[in-house]
Specification:
Elements lengths: L3 E4 L9 H11 L6 H7 L6 H6 L5 H14 L6 H5 L8 H10 L4 E6 L14 H11 L4 E4 H4 L6 H11 L6 E5 L2 H10 L2 E4 L3 H12 L9
Parallel strand pairs: 1-2, 1-4, 2-3, 4-5
């Protein structure tokens, strides 16, 4: 029996930062998915992993990411990457989050960094205020930058379950990255990969047995 819904933030409740990465790559003559490739190289020890776990600060990330991207063929300052992380809130996902709050525990599970404003890295005051309003809908917020571990490390999910007071079998977890869903599924959680928001919500409706989307007139 599902008692809690665990939500990733970027790419689930907001548009994917990968869209911003690709736009930056096009504008700067970089290969498609270059930034993701850098972040996927030595994923447990690279600058991105270290920064999300708060093992290094922004200045050190800026330097290390430039070194790693230079080694990959195109130097990019780490600060430029951080500036790309803020996406736009998906209104249909936020509406579903509100509906779910009355019947289930809502938890936000996010890999983030101690820079910018809020889990979604919303830099402007307007975006920061909108994100703050959404964050109030969560009963539990688990941030990699604050607990020192990150998805997909199993300990991250253990902490989330402990904080929400549920067993993994009582959770459905939404994330846009399969690599983050795999360990959660292995622990016993139901998982939904978010590529198309409407399709993800349709799947979540089936899992929870409740309507989350407005009917089409």
């Amino acid at each position: 029996m599902i008692r809690a819904v665990f939500w990733d933030f970027g790419g689930v409740l907001t548009t994917s930062p990968f869209d911003a990465f690709r736009r930056f790559e096009r504008e700067n003559g970089l290969p498609r998915d270059f930034i993701r490739t850098v972040n996927a190289t030595n994923p447990e020890s690279n600058a991105w992993a270290q920064f999300e776990s708060s093992r290094i600060d922004l200045d050190e990330f800026d330097r290390r990411f430039e070194e790693e991207s230079r080694a990959a063929g195109h130097p990019v300052r780490g600060r430029r990457v951080i500036e790309l992380l803020g996406g736009d809130l998906r209104v249909e996902m936020v509406a579903a989050l509100r509906r779910i709050a009355s019947r289930f525990t809502n938890a936000c599970l996010t890999n983030n960094v101690l820079a910018g404003e809020g889990p979604g890295m919303q830099g402007s005051p307007e975006k920061a205020a909108a994100v703050a309003e959404v964050m109030r809908l969560f009963d539990v917020v688990i941030e990699s930058s604050r607990i020192g571990v990150r998805k997909p490390e199993p300990r991250f999910y253990e902490i989330a379950c402990e904080s929400a007071g549920v067993a993994p079998e009582q959770v459905v977890f939404l994330d846009d990255l399969g690599i983050n869903l795999k360990p959660a599924r292995a622990m016993g959680m139901a998982t939904i990969k978010v590529a198309d928001p409407d399709a993800a919500l349709a799947e979540l409706e089936q899992v929870l047995g409740m309507t989350l989307r407005e009917p089409v007139s």
